[in-house]
Design goal:
The protein has 98 residues and is mainly α. It has five helices and no strands. The protein has helices spanning 3-18, 20-45, 50-57, 61-68, 76-85.
Length: 98
């Protein structure tokens, strides 16, 4: 176990102790960070900068940055513009077990 694993376990325990609201908040955070990582991975796969994604999507670079940081709550329109700029599609997929 690493210190990070210990910290993550502590955060999960605290979320569980807060009840359903705490767990829902943690799950929402994980979803935002998972989306952010997918966007970053795709952008890097295409050798694009945030500025290039912004230009291709018609969004400000600051919007791209915020979404990649897992901040805010991007609209479906924003996500669709980003997906198009990254030659990707929006899709719901099942969660990984574990």
């Amino acid at each position: 176990m690493t210190e990070f694993d210990d910290l993550l376990r502590q955060i999960e325990q605290e979320a569980d102790a807060e009840g359903p609201g705490g767990r829902a908040h943690l799950d929402a955070l994980r979803d935002r960070l998972d989306l952010a990582q997918q966007l970053i991975d795709r952008r890097l796969e295409l050798h694009m900068t945030q500025a290039q994604v912004a230009a291709a999507s018609g969004l400000d670079q600051s919007v791209v940055s915020r979404v990649e940081q897992g901040l805010g709550n991007p609209t479906a329109r924003t996500l669709a513009l980003l997906a198009r700029a990254l030659d990707a599609s929006l899709a719901l997929v099942g969660r990984k077990a574990g």
